[in-house]
Amino acid sequence: MTPRKLPPRKQSRPAEIAAAAPPVVTTHHALGDDVFLTSAQVRGAFGGISEMALWRWAKNPRIGLPPPDAVIARRKYWRAATIRKFQDRMTAGPKTIEVTPPPPPAKRGRRRRAVSPRRR
After folding, report:
1. pTM (2 d.p.)
2. Minimal CA–CA distance to 51: which of 82, 75, 35?
3. CB contact at 8 A, 88 and 79
């Protein structure tokens, strides 16, 4: 049996691909207020944080990531204006928080029992 010859691969040219691709908007600041952002775009706006970090931000009341403006087929979408306001609030500066020192650590080790007098 002789091996089959495959047809030659079609070579694509990077210039043609780049010309055919639509321009990508890398920042949400260039978008209008009513444009919806996916969770991947929101994560990219905050420096490429992970999905778990975004979930934690949403659950943590101290951080206060606003809830998504739309949930469609279990996918979350935020308006660009909502994310912009959240970023402005986050970069406004830290709030004054009183920090109390932690309690001293508990003594560790084995507790000794009281020695009872010997009985005769």
Report:
1. 0.53
2. 75
3. no
